[in-house]
Write a structure and sequence with these properties.
Keywords: ATP-binding, Ligase, Nucleotide-binding. Helices cover 32% and strands 21% of the residues. With 425 residues, the chain is an alpha+beta fold. The chain folds into 3 domains: 125 residues, 3-Layer(aba) Sandwich (Rossmann fold); 76 residues, no CATH class; 186 residues, 2-Layer Sandwich (D-amino Acid Aminotransferase, Chain A, domain 1), CATH 3.30.470. A hairpin with a 6-residue loop joins strand 14 and strand 15. Helix 2 crosses helix 11, helix 6 packs across helix 7 and helix 12 runs antiparallel to helix 13. The relative contact order is 0.13.
């Protein structure tokens, strides 16, 4: 990356030491509806003592994060769903700007594009993300679970759905509780034959199988556009996240939280969570990322088995996570850590956080209540609606900490709630 050593010219025609002062330095972030983009803007754009310009890469108008007072510029880009190569070219054109220091991935498709074309981006910006081979080892869950077993990290019983001639060391019994989930976290040409380099599909939703019923393999393969995974259902309310920033195989900063509620009563992205510090969780997360010789961001999702107490790996998200604002509020300022690492200032990263804090995504809490009213998940126990309302109200009073709502930056929150109302009215 050449630009870290370049400078701009001051009013007297003399070069300015941009790399040292971070003056006229910009960071580009894809603008998505999840709170991760907003957290990056508030962390970097609202920081005293630095001059970081924040650029939203927006596929459409009206995304809440672009309403933030800390969003300095919005650049329109094509949707990766419409043309993945055009999306890459748009990101690369932004990277070519002399003020842009790095790009922050907030979706799996972002880090996929950045990893696949890493050599192109490396000529213009710092690239604290993995190469494509390493990325594939986490976006392909078959490779991921193999890596986890090699690292000594516990995983649920998992196999390709059409592997019914079972060579596995566990019992293939349809009376057990199973789920069917995508093998790949994104469907692109590197992973599935049906896609061209310009095509990208979101992964299909997880399907819960009724106990005692053998699944229709042909239907599931057709609907999921590839051979998905069959995985044992882990009955637990104990969902945990291990979050990390790595520098070529070495941990730079880590954080943990326990999910208390998700978007759905069956789980999913977190709407309410608390920061924790559990040595066994730290060990499992580090063992896996160390084994992968990871580079960049990672959110490692675990379930704690109610029977054994083991942390069982679910997946790795190789980018910023939707609950990022809460990580920052707990003291783990990952957007700033990422910025420091991208600017060659790893030695200055001071990473610490406070355990025992809790925080909410209010839109997520509303989605949790909606899931109780409209969803029926075969293997998950549905709570009482009114008891859930009471629990949410009590937790908001006890832990008034919110991902989007901010007295000093209200417009993103208002836009987010209006969008949620429009989507679900």
């Amino acid at each position: 990356m050449a630009k870290a050593d370049e400078g701009t010219i001051d009013a007297d025609g003399e070069p300015m030491a941009v790399a040292d002062d971070w003056a006229d330095s910009s960071v580009a972030v894809p603008a998505i509806t999840a709170p991760s983009t907003l957290a990056c803007f508030r962390s970097l754009g609202g920081r005293d003592g630095t001059d970081v310009r924040t650029i939203a890469l927006a596929e459409r108008d009206g995304i809440p994060a672009t309403r933030s007072r800390y969003c300095d510029e919005t650049v329109p880009v094509p949707s990766p769903h419409e043309n993945l190569i055009a999306y890459k070219d748009a990101l690369l054109s932004v990277a070519m700007r002399p003020d842009v220091r790095t790009i922050i991935p907030v979706r799996d498709v972002d880090v996929y594009v950045l990893a696949k074309y890493k050599d192109e981006f490396d000529g213009y910006v710092s690239t604290p993300w993995p190469d494509l081979e390493t990325l594939a080892a986490v976006q392909d869950r078959v490779q991921l679970f193999d890596a986890a077993e090699a690292a000594g990290v516990s995983v649920p019983d998992t196999a390709l759905l059409d592997s019914t001639d079972n060579d596995w060391d566990w019992d293939w019994d349809w009376d057990r509780e199973w789920i069917v989930k995508a093998r790949y976290s994104i469907l692109v040409d590197e992973y599935v034959d049906r896609c061209t380099p310009a095509e990208y599909l979101d992964p299909p939703k997880t399907e819960y199988l009724p106990p005692g019923e053998e699944p229709d393999v042909d239907r599931l393969r057709r609907e999921m556009n590839h051979v998905p995974l069959l995985q044992e259902y882990v009955p637990t309310t104990e969902e945990y996240g291990f979050f990390a920033l790595y520098d070529h195989g070495e941990p730079v900063a880590t954080f943990q939280h326990r999910q208390l509620r998700g978007y759905s009563y069956a789980g999913g992205a977190s709407s309410f969570r608390e920061s924790v510090r559990i040595p066994a969780l730290e060990e499992a997360g580090r063992d896996l990322l160390d084994h992968l010789e990871w580079h960049g961001l990672a959110m490692v999702e675990f379930l704690r088995d109610d029977e054994t107490g083991e942390f069982k790996l679910m997946e790795i998200n190789p980018r910023f996570w939707s609950s990022l604002p809460f990580s920052v509020q707990a003291g783990a300022d990952f957007p700033y850590y990422y910025w420091q690492l991208a600017n060659g200032k790893r030695a200055e990263i001071d990473h610490e956080y406070e355990a025992g804090l809790a925080g909410h995504l209010l839109r997520g809490e509303l989605l949790y209540l909606r899931s109780i009213l409209v969803d029926d998940v075969e293997l998950a126990e549905k709570p009482s609606f009114w008891s859930a309302v009471g629990e949410i109200a009590h937790s908001i009073v006890e832990h008034p900490r919110f991902d989007c709502a901010s007295i000093t930056d209200m417009r993103p929150f208002v836009r987010d709630m209006l969008d949620a109302y429009d989507a679900y009215k």
